[in-house]
Specification:
CATH topology of the largest domain: pyruvate-formate lyase- activating enzyme
Function: Catalyzes the methylthiolation of an aspartic acid residue of ribosomal protein uS12.
Distance between the termini: 34 Å
Strand order of the largest sheet: 2-1-3-4-5
Region (Disordered): 1-27
CATH superfamily of the largest domain: tm_1862 like domain
Domain Radical SAM core: 153-386
Number of domains: 3
CATH architecture of the largest domain: Alpha-Beta Horseshoe
Subcellular location: Cytoplasm
Binding site for [4Fe-4S] cluster 1: 35, 71, 100
Strand content: 15-25%
Largest sheet: 5 strands, parallel
Structural class: alpha/beta
Length: 454
């Protein structure tokens, strides 16, 4: 499972949150755990608080109270959230909890009875009420009534763009629909207005996220409002017109997803799709309550590549799902051999309180899950290494993320921040700045990363 980036912790986030507080200004800290969707929630909460006159602290000691935005997707994520709450209580003492784990307030208060308040996911008003109760606002009418720009917890040159909340699927291993509800899409014109403001502010890459990106707009019956249609193909085309890189995450492989591929081939959006396939054997997919269409998926992948040969496909898989036999796991390995996905992650199945998969028979022993995870990742790593080696000697575009004394850390169009690889430039990088998009020649490749020169 992907760990939370350490630089999203308030005690390590000095590069992201400027300290511009005035004397006597109430100050809030933020610990943001979990997925990019939760990160967008954290940014939204901090933006609202700053508009009300609060300063944002980059450390525990400088905050009058700390908000911990939690993750509750897996038991390991719940444990991490409880640890973060405990750390915030120890370092600061005044803690407000929100996020997915907030849907289980008794679970939190049972472990940490001293938290000031617990609210659920995307309950922005309740979070603000809790902050007001703990740290009353003291706005300066000459400063704080001015419109506030958004608080960003990511570098200035890229930003996550959330287009919907919730999910209509009923996968047996997942409790996100129980925590975040059914699909609720934002109006397309509102998404576009936010995207336009981000690009105007200097954002060079928009990372489109939701729980089910390809279902965007189905709850709105694909309505057209203010010149924008609430459908993922139309939205992608509109976003592509802004001139920034547009990267799609969490794309469920519905048939209409094939309409996105020509937009990638034409360069309107990045040739990249993050698709949670989860498994390949039809019986496992059936036990997961996901469509059992592994063979048709291979045909769809081949069709996508015929239109856009440069497309990068990323996915995640569950190994050791209840009832998974060695033969079913071998089918997954064979499928991966044929699919040749570019970016692959996996996690070992674990029970989640409230998930229907807990009650399935024939849970896989821990040592078998570990063995299958190791074998799966060994194959995925070999595929990644071969694909990256084939790029040596080619010229590609990259976006610069960071600069230090040793070089520039960049990403290709096939690499999303935090979860994929990097391209490193260690000579002639002195004139670069974060957010630059430059063309490089690839000199060297490893299993997951590249090196090159301008």
């Amino acid at each position: 499972m992907q760990q939370n980036p350490p630089d999203l912790r308030p005690d390590l986030a000095r590069a992201r949150i400027p300290d511009e507080r005035r004397d006597g200004q109430p100050t809030i800290g933020m610990v943001s755990l979990g997925c990019p969707k939760a990160l967008v929630d954290s940014e939204r909460i901090l933006t609202r608080l700053r508009a009300e006159g609060y300063a944002i602290s980059a450390d525990y000691q400088g905050a009058d109270a700390v908000i911990v935005n939690t993750c509750g997707f897996l038991d390991s994520a719940k444990a991490e959230s409880l640890d973060a709450i405990g750390e915030a209580l120890q370092e600061n003492g005044r803690v407000i909890v929100t996020g997915c784990l907030g849907a289980e307030p008794d679970y939190i208060t049972g472990a940490h009875p001293k938290v000031l308040a617990v609210t659920g996911p995307h309950q922005y008003e309740q979070v603000l009420d809790a902050v007001h109760g703990a740290v009353p606002p003291r706005p300066d009418p000459f400063v704080d009534l001015l419109p506030a720009s958004g608080v960003s917890l990511t570098p200035r040159h890229y930003s996550y763009l959330k287009i919907s909340e919730g999910c209509n699927h009923k996968c047996k291993f997942c409790i996100i629909p129980d925590m975040r509800g059914r699909l609720v899409s934002r109006p397309a014109h509102a998404v576009m207005r936010e995207a336009e403001k981000l690009v105007e502010a200097g954002v060079k890459e928009l990372l489109v996220i939701s729980q089910d990106t390809s279902a965007y707009g189905v709850d709105r019956k694909y309505e057209t409002e203010r010149g924008h249609r609430a459908h993922i193909t139309d939205l992608a085309r509109d976003l592509g017109s802004l001139g920034a890189w547009v990267r799609l995450h969490y794309v469920y492989p519905y048939p209409h997803v094939r309409d996105l591929i020509p937009l990638m081939a034409d360069g309107l959006i990045l040739p990249y799709m993050d698709i949670p396939f989860q498994h390949a054997h039809p019986d496992v997919l059936k036990r997961m309550a996901r469509p059992a269409a592994g063979a048709r998926t291979l045909e769809e992948i081949a069709a996508w590549r015929s239109v856009c040969p440069d497309i990068t496909l990323r996915s995640t898989f569950i190994v050791g799902y209840p009832g998974e036999t060695e033969a079913e796991f071998q089918t997954l390995l064979d499928w991966l051999d044929e699919a040749q996905l570019d970016r692959v992650g996996a996690f070992q199945y674990e029970n989640v309180a409230g998930a229907r998969a807990n009650d399935l028979p024939d849970h896989v022993p821990a040592e078998v899950k570990q063995d299958r995870f190791d074998r799966f990742m060994e194959k995925a790593q070999a595929i990644s290494a071969a694909k990256l080696q084939a790029k040596v000697g080619t010229q590609i575009e990259v976006i610069v993320d960071e600069i230090d004394d040793e070089g520039a850390t960049c990403r290709t169009k096939g690499d999303a921040p935090e979860i994929d690889g990097n391209l490193f430039i260690d000579t002639g990088f002195e004139s670069l700045t974060p957010g630059d998009i430059v063309r490089v020649t690839v000199d060297e490749a490893s299993d997951y990363d590249l090196w090159g020169h301008m």
